[in-house]
Design a protein that fits this description.
The chain has 481 residues and is of the alpha/beta class. It has two domains: 267 residues, Aldehyde Dehydrogenase, Chain A, domain 1 (3-Layer(aba) Sandwich), CATH 3.40.605; 187 residues, Aldehyde Dehydrogenase, Chain A, domain 2 (3-Layer(aba) Sandwich). 36% of the residues lie in helices and 22% in strands. Strand 6 and strand 7 form a beta hairpin. The radius of gyration is 23 Å and the shape is globular. The termini are far apart. The protein binds nicotinamide-adenine-dinucleotide. Nicotinamide-adenine-dinucleotide binds next to helix 7 and helix 8.
Amino acid sequence: MKTYWQNYIDGAWVDGGAGRIDVINPGTGEKLAEQALADAGDVDRAVMAAQRVHQAGVLSDLRPVERGRIVQAMGRYLLDHIDELAQVLTLEQGKPLWEARIEVEGAARYFEYYGNQAETVEGRSIPLGKDYFDFTTYEPFGVSAQIIPWNYPVEMMARSLSAALATGNTCVIKTPELTPLSNAWFANAAEAVGLPKGAVNILCGLGHDAGAALSAHPHVNQIVFTGSVPTGIAIATAAAQNVVPCVLELGGKSAAIVHDDADLAAFENDVRWGIYFNAGQVCSAMSRVIVHDSVHDALVDRMVGVAQSLTVKPGVEQPEFGPTMGAMVSESQRDRAAQMVSDAQAQGANVATGGRKMNIPGAFLEPTILTDITPEMTIANDEVFGPVLSVLKFSTDDEAIKIANGTPYGLVGGVFTSNLDRATRAAQQLRAGQVFVNEWYAGGVETPFGGYGKSGYGREKGREALWNYVQTKNVAIRLKG
Ligand code: NAD
């Protein structure tokens, strides 16, 4: 493994104006490598390179099917390099190797999907009577700035980069300072598929330095951000100063409502994936379960069984799919989650299982289930971003919806029942951008994803996301005679 990783600006690998940062392996607590840190000057060079390529029309003038083929080839490049890429992702992020491989496959799937979509962004003609010919077209914004979180660095970069390129934008991407290394493969992919120098620029830097410089840069035309609410507000404020649109995906406190007629055995699988996949560091994690009081104890027994069945160890020791969980991304994220568990206990929560830091090197937290949670507790409202599930009770359908909708967030929600009317009613009433019925994470790259409330605005995934990357132009022609 390389010990020093550079940034990729205007087709060249370069050092950073802000020096270097250590990248730590959260599975061991040891230093993995050093990463160049960009400063505002580096950001400026990257944005100007992207603007140059955009203004030259290199991508936007292509016939969309050609652009789509380039985008698809990038996905194939990632799959061709999955072994080395997944290994580095596991080492820097902490997730099991089998999860890292799923993440790389998911990233490739975005390039496949948006590569396919490139030639579907069609305009329309609007009738204005015999003296006019009028049509509407969609054009790329220009320079798309993308600020990436550390929980799924490969998949999140793929999500925005694939859609931005498919629609003919050029990109400047700021990678997360905790997990910047695996993003280097996107630069290699851009070169391999023949994108011109400056079309894709990838740099790591501190949020308040390079991140702030990128979001405030006057030649950025559109911003995509995934991360915390406070940072989202800072980025939206910077975007407002330059009057550019942004897409914000800011996490959640998403709830599954489990009715007395739900398939409790099947729900074990939803617990497994919903809160322990990626050690719960998922914006759409199932971090609350709101269960009917008649099945509460039976469900808690099952969920505790799931949590206790998981083996927790460094990601590189987990090559095969199975009942395993890795480290959290850093000791400070782990300590923050552990502290939230202690604070919840002080407010009356019962730790049904887990809750402790593990007594081994690395950023490990036991898979945790908290019961006796009531809606006003901090743990019922604040995002933990770790393997910690809060269980609340309800007795009427209305009460369940009220609890589910009772946080400032609204990313996703779920309802588990065998009654179709009840499921449909809940789907109507849940204030969330996506509702899962009888399977947490049902859907895919094709289904639009994004938040209500403080979970953000704009949509990622699906055809819906394409409209974030294009602006509408109407042309009205007065005909002679
Ligand atoms: P963060 O929002 O601070 O960081 C996310 C990204 O934003 C990083 O690349 C960071 O460098 C950048 N950034 C930070 N400050 C910036 C600024 N002023 N201008 C521009 N960019 C800036 O998140 P974090 O500190 O890494 O994690 C804190 C919490 O955020 C987590 O505990 C979790 O609750 C939440 N989070 C959510 C997601 C998600 O997928 N929704 C992902 C990561 C973190």
